[in-house]
């Protein structure tokens, strides 16, 4: 049995959003003690992910307000609730949006990383009872995001969504393992299983797309093709292992898929769509090799449009795979990625382009919206 500490509600600073698209306000909030199967975590640093921006803009459900955003973070366990095993105060941890109960059929299987007992959902409260652990100064409830809500000095997270990490990993770097970098690296490593000498095409060189490139590099891919409309991504991509760059605006009469097929003598072995547009998903599929080409979809279609592909192409041996958290099992695989970082196999520090204190969190939003940052570290004590 874990140690159950009797603790009280605490008043701490958090960045609260009270309406869709409005700047976040740093205010004092009440953070309740953890209930059974929960941990209260002192957040050391967090960072801004595009998913936070998506829900920050969302006016209709599941966009609910007031809300504390943030789900990519590093912290230290402050206290544990009843029935928590394997964690103690002082443990270095990262929260994750995806649960791993280690008991359900999916968690026990090597074929899935989507926990079927605590399946991912964008709910406004905690996963077991859908209630909140946050209140404002007037006692009114403040909603969670993904059961993490890391834009707060302290937060409460379900034990199935917390992973211990080696404290030797620097906080800002450990933070990246919580979502974006793990999603991209995992998609190449765990889901696609990119092979040495293979060819890879990545559509969209944002943080996740560049993480795919990093994962493909580690796996030994010989040709990593980056596709992006931003010409600045050509030089940036090289830092992450991109060997060839395509700007669709500079192809004249040729299509992206035609160019990739020519570059790879028949199509890329693995194609990754990292933007969230059905047209690009189709381009990725068309760019994959007949016979064994895999297309991995990482981006959620931003307009809700369906993906339409030719059944004949499927008969030719191509396949399409969906990706949630890059196929990574959080409690099993994040420590492996941490070890790869410590062993200098996995290069994560290059994802961190800016840093701010909690009081300047809106600057992180500005930098991401202007396309100036990959990851901006937000420190709680600065």
TrEMBL record:
Q: Name one Pfam family in it.
A: ADH_N
Keyword Iron among record annotations: no
Q: Tell me the ranges covered by the Alcohol dehydrogenase-like C-terminal domain, including all copies.
A: 207-335
Location relative to the cell: Cytoplasm
**One MF term in GO for this entry?**
zinc ion binding
- What is catalyzed by this enzyme? a secondary alcohol + NAD(+) = a ketone + NADH + H(+); a primary alcohol + NAD(+) = an aldehyde + NADH + H(+)
Q: Which residues form the signal peptide?
A: 1-15
PROSITE patterns (alphabetical): ADH_ZINC (PS00059)
Q: List required co-factors.
A: Zn(2+)
Family matches, as Gene3D superfamilies: Medium-chain alcohol dehydrogenases, catalytic domain (3.90.180.10), NAD(P)-binding Rossmann-like Domain (3.40.50.720)
SUPFAM superfamilies given for it? GroES-like (SSF50129), NAD(P)-binding Rossmann-fold domains (SSF51735)
Which domain of life does the UniProt lineage start with?
A: Eukaryota
Q: Name one GO biological process term.
A: formaldehyde catabolic process
Which residues are in the Alcohol dehydrogenase-like N-terminal domain?
Answer: 36-166
Q: What keywords tag this UniProt record?
A: Metal-binding, NAD, Oxidoreductase, Signal, Zinc
Describe the protein's quaternary organization and the partners it interacts with: Homodimer.
> Belongs to which family?
Belongs to the zinc-containing alcohol dehydrogenase family. Class-III subfamily.
What's the protein here called?
Enoyl reductase (ER) domain-containing protein
């Amino acid at each position: 049995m874990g140690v159950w500490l009797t603790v009280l509600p605490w008043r701490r600073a958090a960045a609260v959003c009270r309406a869709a698209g409005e700047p976040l306000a740093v205010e004092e909030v009440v953070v309740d003690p953890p209930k059974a199967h929960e941990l209260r975590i002192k957040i050391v640093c967090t960072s801004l992910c595009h998913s936070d921006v998506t829900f920050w803009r969302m006016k209709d459900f599941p966009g609910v307000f007031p809300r504390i955003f943030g789900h990519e973070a590093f912290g230290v366990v402050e206290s544990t609730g009843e029935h928590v095993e394997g964690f103690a105060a002082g443990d270095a941890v990262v929260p994750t949006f995806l649960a791993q109960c280690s008991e359900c059929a999916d968690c026990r299987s090597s074929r899935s990383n989507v926990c079927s007992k605590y399946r991912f959902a964008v709910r406004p409260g905690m996963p077991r009872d859908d209630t909140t652990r946050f209140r404002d100064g007037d006692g009114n409830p403040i909603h969670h995001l993904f059961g993490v809500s890391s834009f707060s000095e302290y937060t409460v997270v379900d034990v199935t969504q917390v992973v211990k990490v080696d404290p030797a990993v620097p906080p800002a770097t450990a933070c990246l393992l919580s979502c974006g970098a793990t999603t991209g690296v995992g998609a190449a490593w765990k889901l696609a299983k990119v092979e040495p000498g293979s060819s890879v095409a990545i559509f969209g060189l944002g943080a996740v797309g560049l993480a795919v490139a990093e994962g493909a590099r580690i796996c030994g891919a010989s040709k990593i093709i980056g596709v992006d409309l931003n010409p600045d991504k050509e030089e940036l991509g090289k830092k992450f292992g991109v060997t060839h760059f395509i700007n669709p605006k500079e192809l004249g009469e040729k299509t992206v898929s035609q160019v990739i097929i020519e570059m790879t003598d028949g199509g890329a072995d693995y194609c990754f769509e990292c933007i969230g547009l059905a047209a690009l998903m189709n381009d990725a599929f068309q760019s994959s090799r007949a016979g064994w080409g895999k297309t991995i979809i990482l981006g959620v279609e931003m307009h809700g449009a369906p993906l339409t592909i030719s059944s004949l192409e499927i008969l030719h041996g191509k396949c399409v795979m969906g990706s949630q958290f890059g196929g990574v099992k959080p409690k099993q695989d994040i420590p492996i990625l941490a070890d790869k970082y410590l062993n200098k196999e996995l290069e994560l520090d290059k994802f961190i382009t800016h840093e701010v204190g909690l009081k300047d969190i809106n600057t992180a939003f500005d930098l991401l919206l202007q396309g100036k940052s990959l990851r901006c570290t937000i420190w709680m004590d600065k």
